[in-house]
């Protein structure tokens, strides 16, 4: 299990552990862990390696000073850019500075031109840790911009400087953050390393618990998504079954000019195992889908909403007829997936939001940041500034499982559980992939999966299929939503073969 901890939780763990350990032990252990991670990134003899260490004014800088001393003792050619603090440093940081000065490491002034033109094998970022509240500005902003352009590996200690460890946003409206290729994070993993700007700035993350006793950790309500969270529902199919054994899905959408969206969602439901799939159109329905004639095309107004899991919203439009279809979907006793225009309609209708919150059939909503912002009465920027909080707020308000899409998709339950997904890549940033995800989730629900597990599995599979396709050279540039669907089918079948009961 991969728990995630907020800054407040890490501070409490740190405080509890420090009371049981000798003074300065945590910083010494963090420095050693940072040095070990750095040595793993050096591609040749340590004696030839040139390492630039940024040591900020706080305890993160102390971690960097400890790491620098270890690297110098190991024979690396270490240069330290030491940022003095106007406040009195902590005793452990003062001791770390003393050890670094007693090593063979060299201390240098900030010279951006010299930094940019020198050949470095590794940068170690210890400017600011998890406690940063203000944006990085002035000369330090220029320093961050300079080191981000270096062609070498960049190792962040605990969290890339400038990145909010709780949210993954860059601190400040016009702030900057170190773009690390690797991060060694201390004590426990942090949500901000995996969502919003986190995946672009943290790189490959490893966790060092600093040899802390398990008793100092409290149970976490935030985790990274894992197959074991939903693997018990991956069941091999019995021979003695029929199409009715695997449920029905009906996709409500397809206003004029947007017929492709419900077709994509319906194809995703069909190819991931739903027994019967209906593409139900808000306007005139085509006779059939030429690529998948197994899909049954209907007019949405004629469909019995209690006969299938409804996926409402792909290409639904904003007309009065669409509003009426949404009201019918909300009245269904079956599980419901709401996406796209269904969410936009919902945002403008408090009565329908109340109806959603009172549903007993189970609801899963899949907003992107702008759709979430409309539902919350915020801007998209405000949602992105704290994606975990936005997802939790929506889940509690609408009594629904929320899938807040984006880099590091955030899933939240009405009970307050939060999961961040780590599969997926930029190939998903193209039209139609959200429709595919909605159809996939509807298919799992139709096959009897609980709403929370259907969301976890749907998001994980959706991203994993994209990852496999990129590995095979089919992305990230130019991958289409339609191409993704067969890859999801393959990923699902392989998972069932491996984990199925």
What does this structure look like?
This protein is an alpha/beta fold and 501 residues long. The protein has two domains: 3-219, Rossmann fold, CATH 3.40.50; 227-499, Ribokinase (UDP-N-acetylmuramoyl-L-alanine:D-glutamate ligase). 39% of the residues lie in helices and 15% in strands. It has 17 helices and 18 strands. It has an eleven-stranded mixed beta sheet with strand order 1-9-18-17-16-15-14-13-10-11-12, sandwiched between helices. The chain has a seven-stranded parallel beta sheet with strand order 4-3-2-5-6-7-8, covered by helices on one side. α15 (433-446) crosses α16. The longest helix has 21 residues, at 451-471. The radius of gyration is 26 Å and the shape is elongated. The model has no long low-confidence stretch (mean pLDDT 95).
Topology:
Blueprint: E1 3-4, H1 7-18, H2 25-41, E2 50-55, H3 59-73, E3 77-82, H4 91-101, E4 106-108, H5 112-117, E5 122-126, H6 138-148, E6 153-157, E7 182-186, H7 198-202, E8 204-208, E9 222-224, E10 248-253, H8 260-271, E11 276-281, E12 296-299, E13 309-312, H9 320-330, E14 336-338, H10 341-347, H11 350-357, E15 363-365, H12 369-376, H13 380-385, H14 387-398, E16 401-404, E17 410-412, E18 418-420, H15 433-446, H16 451-471, H17 481-499
Parallel strand pairs: 2-3, 2-5, 3-4, 5-6, 6-7, 7-8, 9-18, 10-11, 10-13, 11-12, 13-14, 14-15, 15-16
Antiparallel strand pairs: 1-9, 16-17, 17-18
């Amino acid at each position: 299990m991969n728990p995630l901890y907020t800054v407040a939780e890490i501070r409490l763990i740190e405080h509890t552990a420090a009371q049981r350990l000798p003074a300065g032990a945590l910083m010494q252990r963090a420095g050693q862990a940072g040095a070990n991670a750095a040595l793993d990134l050096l591609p040749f003899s340590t004696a030839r390696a040139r390492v630039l260490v940024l040591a900020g004014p706080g305890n993160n800088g102390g971690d960097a000073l400890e790491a620098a001393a270890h690297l110098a003792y190991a024979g690396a050619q270490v240069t330290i850019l030491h940022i003095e603090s106007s406040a009195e440093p902590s005793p452990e940081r003062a001791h770390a500075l003393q050890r670094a000065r007693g090593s063979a490491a060299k201390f240098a002034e900030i010279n951006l031109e010299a930094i940019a033109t020198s050949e470095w094998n590794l940068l170690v970022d210890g400017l600011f840790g998890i406690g940063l509240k203000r944006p990085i500005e002035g000369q330090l902003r220029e320093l961050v911009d300079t080191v981000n352009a270096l062609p070498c590996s960049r190792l962040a200690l605990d969290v890339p400087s400038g990145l909010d460890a709780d949210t993954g946003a860059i601190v400040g409206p016009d702030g900057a953050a170190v773009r690390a290729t690797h991060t060694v994070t201390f004590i426990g993993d942090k949500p901000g390393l995996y969502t919003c700007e986190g995946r672009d700035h943290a790189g490959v993350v490893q966790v060092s618990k600093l040899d802390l006793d398990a008793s100092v950790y409290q149970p976490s309500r935030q985790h990274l998504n894992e197959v074991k969270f939903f693997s018990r529902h991956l069941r091999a199919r019995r021979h003695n079954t029929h199409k009715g054994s695997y449920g029905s899905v009906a996709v409500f959408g397809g206003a004029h000019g947007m017929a492709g969206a419900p077709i994509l969602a319906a194809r995703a439901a069909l190819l991931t195992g739903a027994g019967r799939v209906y593409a139900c159109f808000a306007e005139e329905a085509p006779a059939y889908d030429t690529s998948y004639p197994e899909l049954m095309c209907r007019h949405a107004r004629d469909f019995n909403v209690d006969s299938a899991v409804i996926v409402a919203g792909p290409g639904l439009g904003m007309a009065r007829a669409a509003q009426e279809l949404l009201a019918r979907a909300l009245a269904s006793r079956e599980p419901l997936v709401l996406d796209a225009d269904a969410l936009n309609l919902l945002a403008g209708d408090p009565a329908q939001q109340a109806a959603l919150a009172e549903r007993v059939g189970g609801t899963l909503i899949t907003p992107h940041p702008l759709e979430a912002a409309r539902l919350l009465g915020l801007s998209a920027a405000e949602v992105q500034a704290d994606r975990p909080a936005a997802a939790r707020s929506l889940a509690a308000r609408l009594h629904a499982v929320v899938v807040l899409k984006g880099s590091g998709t955030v899933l939240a339950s009405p009970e307050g559980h939060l999961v961040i997904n780590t599969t997926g890549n930029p190939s998903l940033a193209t039209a139609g992939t959200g429709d595919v995800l909605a159809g996939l989730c509807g298919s799992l629900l139709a096959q009897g999966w609980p709403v929370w597990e259907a969301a976890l599995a749907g998001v994980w599979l959706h991203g994993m299929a994209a990852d496999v396709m990129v590995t095979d050279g089919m992305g990230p540039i130019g991958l289409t939503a339609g191409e993704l669907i067969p890859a999801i089918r393959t990923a699902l079948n392989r998972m069932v073969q491996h984990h199925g009961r």
